[in-house]
Design a protein that fits this description.
The chain is mainly alpha-helical. The chain has two helices and no strands. The longest helix is centred in the C-terminal third of the chain and has 29 residues. The two termini are 15 Å apart. One of its GO terms (molecular function) is protein dimerization activity.
Length: 61
């Protein structure tokens, strides 16, 4: 993962995290919108972790 891609992904994660917190406070943890935002955030975090792991594996080799 290139540094620029990593930074973009981290910005997306932080932006979505803030939005999810706002929606959760306003509509509750079990609202459909909160759940969908949480799932989107999970996917972004998984992508970040996967790409980070690939990067560390490549520098170990």
């Amino acid at each position: 993962m290139k540094k620029y891609e990593s930074q973009c992904l981290l910005i997306q994660i932080e932006t979505l995290r803030k939005k999810m917190i706002e929606v959760t406070v306003e509509k509750g943890f079990t609202s459909q919108e909160s759940i969908e935002l949480s799932q989107q955030l999970d996917r972004l975090l998984n992508d970040y972790e996967k790409n980070r792991d690939k990067y560390y594996q490549s520098i170990k080799s």
